[in-house]
Amino acid sequence: MKKISVMIPCYNEEENVVAIGDAVEDIIKKELPEYDYEICYVDNASTDKTRPLIEEICEKNKKRKAIFNVTNFGQFNSPFHGICELDGDCVISVCADFQDPVEMIPVFVHEWEKGHRIVSGVKTSSKENGLIYFLRSMYYKLIKSMSSVHMIEHFTGFGLYDKSFVKLMRELDDPLPFIRGVVAEYGEGFNLKLVEYEQPLRRAGKTHNNFFTLYDAAMLSFTSYTKVGLRLMTMLGFIVGMIDVIVAVVYLVLKLMYWDEFHAGYAPMIIGMFLIGAVQLAFMGFMGEYIMNINTRTIHRPIVVEERRINFEEK
After folding, report:
1. 3-state secondary structure 116-140
2. According to the model, what pLDDT value does residue 128 have?
3. To 10 degrees, the CA torsion angle through 194, 199, 202, 208?
4. What is the pTM of this model?
């Protein structure tokens, strides 16, 4: 009997954590009775009642497992680590907030049985704020146009991963794992299948995404899968430098030709200084993102440090 592992990343989801586990179990029992299964909660150091609720769930049902992290390792590291720690014939990642519809699980499994070793859920529409969805669409198109790999638009990580792909994920040994990029980079070799769905609203609670988490996601994708930042710095720096040289030559010629009549004034110098300073500061910040990415990979800390596990067999 094949085994399906479902990984549910959690952070302060006390209003959803019980319901999402029950919903996943119900859909598997109803639609996929021929499969064995396990459900693993990966808690990213929640500060509400999420952990006690998970402990209670796992105590009552040995098919429910848990991994508790010692601190919050972010929206990418924790789910990536959770997928790598499960040993099912396939692993399905489902967010705890119900924005990844559990009804898609049987669809993913059926596509998997057809030979697709990665089945990725792709949002065709969303019930979230229209402006937010539009901005996300622009972001995905921008990354796709600049990336060295074929990035998948509106793919958040929701999907099914065959154990052979999970094995590859373990072997990557990347301290900054970005599963969207990994799937885009290696998906073709694993017969990637894209399955469309409409994203519903959160069932309860508030989203944990904010400007900083979205910025982290954007910068990770930029610095890991594009060279555009560095290329843009080089090109724009060259263009601004040429403009400065041309302006300097023009001013020199005018001054030599009209020595007494021509008064350059301070305005051009001030404008030029601020323009060059602004460009330098902006691209120093962009370069800093690349350097920080390199630094993190060089230090090579663990993706996640676990506090403890529940219902895992001793190795």
Report:
1. CCEEEEEEEEECCCHHHHHHHHHHH
2. 64
3. 60
4. 0.74
